[in-house]
């Protein structure tokens, strides 16, 4: 799992085209790749986007307190995309960030 997370983080950091993976591509990707992508997007939210954001700390606390597995978080993101079909053609990172805000009630 550490390798998947590291790969996902590096992908975001170097600006690889995977940033542009759509919701549909995330849904169709192998599960391990999808989980890595979701974790990478979550890490991006906290370390690159704005590490001093109080919302990020609320999200991190929420995820930790829920004792949510990586697999569960991935499944919730996929369900979010299914409930919001307009996000199928948008960058999957947006869906991940919206899902984190939604499940942790952070807006």
Task: Characterise this structure.
The structure is a single chain. The protein is mainly alpha-helical and 107 residues long. It has one domain. The chain has 6 helices and no strands. Helix 1 packs across helix 3, helix 3 crosses helix 6 and helix 5 crosses helix 6. The relative contact order is 0.18.
Structural shape: globular
**DSSP, total strands:** 0
What low-confidence regions span 5 or more consecutive residues with pLDDT below 50? 3-15
Strand count, sense and barrel status of the largest sheet are: none
**Radius of gyration from the alpha-carbon trace, in angstroms:** 13 Å
Overall number of domains: 1
SSE arrangement, N to C = HHHHHH
Average pLDDT value? 81
- Kindly name the structural category: mainly alpha
List its traits.
107 residues; mainly alpha; 6 helices; 0% strand; globular; disordered N terminus
Briefly say what this structure is.
The protein is mostly helical. Helices cover 72% and strands 0% of the residues. The protein has one domain (2-13, 21-103).
Blueprint of the fold:
Blueprint: H1 2-14, H2 23-28, H3 31-49, H4 54-66, H5 70-83, H6 92-103
Helix pairs in contact: 1-3, 3-5, 3-6, 5-6
